């Protein structure tokens, strides 16, 4: 039995694939900025004195890190409307990715903060800096530098996990691939091209973020 591959038949569907790819890119960019910002806030809370806010955030981190992303997404899409909270598929996808990355980045960034020498806090106090100033200007920059590669990897994992949002009919790359496959029945060709697009996006995203990190952290001490 001979199978003939027909990649040329996919040519009319490239606009659909590229539109899905662009949706994935914009969704990932928004989730990355929001999720890392959430992680910085969470790391600040979790690195301070234990309190109600720290314990609540810790509970959120444990909940997200110990449940599947698809369950989190389905809860937002199908569970929240039962209590009157409704949103579009795009809003739900972004919220799920943001919450997921926020939990993981909290622990990544907190790990960088915990190894900060105590002398940095004491020196900042002697200079008259407030706790917020000390955290933002003295503690956070080197902490981010230490964990930046791990943070980049987590952002890429979240980007790849965005393929799950096709299950709630959000028209990103995997949704486009599934739709094209259902119309052409060229499963091998469609999913090979989709795989290569995800691979290219992952490699490009890693290189861009690492290059940005080298620029942001230029001159920072280890």
UniProtKB/TrEMBL annotation:
Name the UniProt key words of this record, in alphabetical order: Amino-acid transport, Cell inner membrane, Cell membrane, Membrane, Transmembrane, Transmembrane helix, Transport
Question: GO:BP terms for this protein?
Answer: amino acid transport
Question: What Pfam family is a match, any one?
Answer: BPD_transp_1
Q: Which InterPro entries match?
A: AA_ABC_transptr_permease_3TM, ArtM/GltK/GlnP/TcyL/YhdX-like, MetI-like, MetI-like_sf
Family annotation (SUPFAM superfamilies)? MetI-like
- Residue ranges spanning the membrane: these are 20-45, 185-205
A Gene Ontology cellular-component term = ATP-binding cassette (ABC) transporter complex
Give the Gene Ontology MF terms in alphabetical order: transmembrane transporter activity
UniProt keyword annotation of Transmembrane present: yes
- Membrane topology, from the record: Multi-pass membrane protein
The record's subcellular location field reads: Cell inner membrane; Cell membrane
- What Gene3D superfamilies does this protein map onto? MetI-like
Family of the protein in this entry? Belongs to the binding-protein-dependent transport system permease family. HisMQ subfamily.
* Protein name according to UniProt: Amino acid ABC transporter permease
């Amino acid at each position: 039995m001979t199978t003939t591959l027909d990649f040329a038949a996919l040519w009319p569907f490239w606009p659909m694939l590229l539109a899905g790819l662009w949706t994935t890119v914009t969704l990932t960019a928004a989730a990355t900025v929001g999720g890392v910002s959430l992680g910085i806030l969470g790391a600040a809370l979790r690195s301070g004195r234990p309190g109600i806010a720290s314990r609540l955030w810790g509970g959120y981190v444990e909940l997200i890190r110990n449940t599947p992303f698809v369950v989190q997404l389905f809860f937002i899409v199908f569970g929240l409307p039962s209590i009157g909270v409704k949103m579009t598929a795009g809003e739900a996808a972004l919220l799920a990715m943001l919450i997921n990355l926020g939990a993981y980045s909290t622990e990544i960034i907190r790990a960088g903060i915990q190894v900060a020498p105590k002398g940095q806090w004491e020196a900042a106090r002697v200079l008259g800096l407030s706790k917020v100033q000390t955290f933002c200007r003295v503690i956070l920059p080197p902490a981010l530098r230490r964990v930046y590669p791990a943070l980049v990897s987590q952002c890429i994992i979240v980007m790849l996990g965005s393929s799950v949002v096709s299950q709630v009919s959000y028209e990103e790359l995997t949704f486009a691939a599934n739709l094209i496959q259902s119309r052409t029945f060229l499963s091998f060709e469609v999913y090979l091209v989709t795989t290569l697009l995800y691979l290219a996006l992952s490699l490009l995203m890693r290189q861009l973020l690492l290059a940005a990190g080298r620029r942001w952290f230029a001159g920072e001490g280890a």
